[in-house]
Design goal:
Blueprint (H helix, E strand, L loop, with lengths): L1 E2 L7 H24 L5 H21 L4 E6 L3 E7 L4 E5 L4 E7 L2 E8 L2 E5 L5 H19 L3 H9 L1
Antiparallel strand pairs: 1-2, 2-3, 3-4, 5-6, 6-7
Length: 154
């Protein structure tokens, strides 16, 4: 499974947005300079650079993703673009939804270790992911779907 955050803009759309914002700032600064504010173009350039940088950083944060691999022996979570990787024995891993910081946290835990996954997902997406993981883990270990569904309701 690949978990990725939703993006509102493509790279091309981001570039277009930045160009439009810079153009509007420079037009406004030109009007200000025409009326006597000689520093307006300088401030517009500084502001445009700061806005472009902030939008680029926010857009790059959308590159985060997590890859979840499940087989009969293990469940492995790899956080990308970093190298953080955690492996759990698939029979012992528990899928938990816990409240925290005004949102639900989706945790995988086993043998005293735990890892939060899907932090960039919406609450409803985390709930759906937890149910899907519980069903997949149950399928691997022969638990009935009714047991998993009852556990999901609690």
């Amino acid at each position: 499974m690949w978990l990725k955050p939703n993006r509102a803009l493509s790279r091309r759309g981001l570039r277009r947005l930045i160009v439009v914002l810079v153009a509007l700032a420079l037009i406004t600064a030109g009007l200000g300079a025409w009326q006597g504010n000689v520093f307006a173009p300088l401030f517009a350039l500084v502001e445009s650079a700061a806005v472009a940088c902030a939008l680029s950083v926010a857009w790059r944060a959308g590159d985060r993703s997590e890859r979840i691999t499940l087989d009969a022996m293990s469940l492995e979570v790899q956080s990308l673009p970093g190298r953080r990787r955690m492996r759990f024995q698939s029979y012992w891993v528990r899928v938990l939804l816990e409240p925290g910081n005004g949102r639900q946290r989706l945790l995988l835990s086993s043998h005293g270790r735990e890892m939060e996954i899907g932090a960039f997902l919406a609450d409803q997406e985390r709930v759906e992911l937890s149910k899907k993981l519980m069903v997949l883990l149950a399928d691997f270990h022969g638990r009935s779907r009714e047991q998993v569904q009852q556990r999901c309701k609690t």
